[in-house]
Design brief:
The complex is a heterodimer. Chain A contains eight helices and no strands. Chain A is mainly α. The longest helix of chain A has 40 residues, at 5-44. Helices cover 80% and strands 0% of the residues of chain B. Chain B is built from nine helices and no strands. Chain B has helices at residues 2-6, 8-39, 45-60, 63-73, 83-109, 112-120, 125-155, 167-178, 182-216. The chains are: A mainly alpha, B mainly alpha. The A-B interface holds A 1, 61, 63-70, 72-73, 76-77, 80-81, 158-162, 164-165, 172, 176, 179, 185-186, 189-190, 192-193, 196-197, 200-201, 204 and B 56-57, 59-66, 68-69, 72-73, 76-78, 150, 154-158, 160-161, 168, 171-172, 175, 181-182, 185-186, 188-189, 192-193, 196-197, 200.
């Protein structure tokens, strides 16, 4: 088995098209994971015990079951219940939902790390709830959240090949489709691996840089 | 309910295979975690560099890509792996890279004085790790290892894509034979959740029992 540059050149444009879909899925999925994660975090800190309990076990359920099965669930089950999603949409919803249970822990820890005195100070200044959040709590809790949230972005990027299982033609699936039609596995798969490294290694070092930058302030 | 009765053997087989995959790849991942994690702390730069390359490679590419590479590409290079072997190696190698960071981090977080004390007692490098650093680092590794174990268990679902008949595969078979969707997928989600919950319970128990034992016995001096 020899490396064939002609095959590599032929498959490369398809991989690039796939990479675009991968990046889109990563960012849309991450946006969803961040938004939902914040909602979950706030609900987890609710005064109401029933709400806390429900949200805790719901997110544990999502966290302890495979993303692949959740994607199948969204892809196969929802249409039977009358809800039709495109494969891409099902994929990003699955990604977002799965990782919101991880990001919610980041948000919760970030918010809980703000000292209690800050809440009391806001109260003594007669701040409204909205002012307390936007002027006191969030400005202090967001910077330490940035590095772990960036890390989850990278994790989600590496999880996007699962979307191939529900027919999304992202980077991995683009290679897989080519491989299955021409029986060439070496070049496409190797290139996919290389492209993943090319994106994820610099991103990981960028995340580490963020970590150093924001940990110095605390 | 009928579904469970009719497909009982398939579901049991799938559950057992998922558990088997989890256990075998956890053993591989644990061995790699320590090997690579300790190699990253080595005195020799070649060992450190090789370990770093391993880490970046397996952490930087996607698990599914690694699994497909092992299943479809390695045979072309003359290495044929059974689906089971390709599955456990991919899962174990992938999680092992994350685990190596846990090992390295835990050992590095043991106080520097401990390392110096071992030096001053003229311990060899082996003795220093074996009797001083690793025993103190292990309790710190348990909680993050527990999280990785859950990730590993979830990762085994990917093996259904390289023809292994695990739980996820069982659900796919049921779907294609009965056209039912909600029941099989909800059922296996619950089974996965139960397996994960047992693993969480096991990790908690392990963390507690180690802490208890360490708390009760005085610190050994040898």
């Amino acid at each position: 088995m020899h490396w064939d540059w002609a095959v590599a050149a032929e498959v490369f444009p398809r991989l690039m098209a796939g990479l675009v879909v991968t990046v889109q899925a990563t960012f849309v999925g991450a946006a969803l994971a961040y938004a939902l994660g914040l909602v979950l975090a706030i609900l987890k800190m609710s005064e109401n015990r029933a709400v806390r309990w429900t949200v805790y076990w719901l997110s544990e359920f999502i966290r302890r079951t495979p993303l692949l099965v959740q994607l199948y669930f969204l892809f196969y089950v929802l249409p039977d219940l009358g809800l039709f999603l495109s494969p891409f949409l099902a994929g990003v919803i699955g990604l977002g939902l799965h990782f919101s249970t991880y990001t919610s822990e980041v948000f919760r820890a970030g918010i809980e790390n703000v000292p209690k005195g800050q809440w009391e100070a806001a109260k003594s200044l007669n701040y409204t709830m909205a002012q307390t959040w936007t002027r006191v709590i969030l400005p202090q809790s967001i910077p330490p959240m940035i590095p772990p949230l960036a890390n989850y972005l990278i994790t989600m990027f590496k999880e996007t090949p699962l979307l191939a299982a529900i027919t999304v033609v992202e980077l991995f699936n683009a290679a897989n489709i080519y491989s299955n039609s021409y029986y060439k596995y070496l070049e496409p798969m190797t290139l996919v691996g290389a492209l993943f490294l090319l994106v994820s290694i610099p991103s990981a070092y960028a995340a580490m840089w963020l970590e150093q930058k924001y940990s110095r302030r605390n | 309910m009928e579904l469970i009765v009719e497909f009982y053997p398939l579901l049991v087989k799938g559950t057992l295979l998922t558990i088997e995959l989890t256990v075998v790849s956890a053993v591989i991942a644990l061995a790699i975690s320590f090997t690579v994690g300790l190699a990253r702390l080595s005195r020799h730069w070649i060992v450190r560099t090789l370990a770093l390359i391993y880490l970046e490679f397996f952490r930087g590419t996607s698990a599914l890509v690694q699994m497909f590479f092992m299943f479809y590409v390695l045979p072309l290079l003359g290495i044929s792996l059974s689906p089971f072997l390709a599955g456990v190696i991919a899962c174990g190698f992938n999680l092992g890279s994350y685990g190596s960071e846990v090992v390295r981090g835990a050992i590095k977080s043991v106080g520097k004085g401990q390392s110096e004390a071992a030096h001053s007692l003229n311990y060899t490098s082996y003795q220093r790790y074996r009797y001083v650093l690793i025993p103190q680092a292990v309790p710190m590794m348990i909680p993050p290892f527990g999280n990785l174990l859950i990730e590993l268990m979830k990762l085994t679902a990917l093996t259904s894509l390289i023809t292994l008949s695990d739980l996820t595969f069982a659900a796919q078979i049921i779907r294609s034979q009965t056209a039912m969707t909600l029941e099989p997928f909800l059922l296996i989600l619950v089974i996965y959740f139960l397996i994960a919950s047992v693993l969480v319970g096991f990790t908690d128990w392990l963390a507690k029992s180690i802490a208890k034992r360490r708390g009760m016995t005085p610190v050994r001096t040898n």
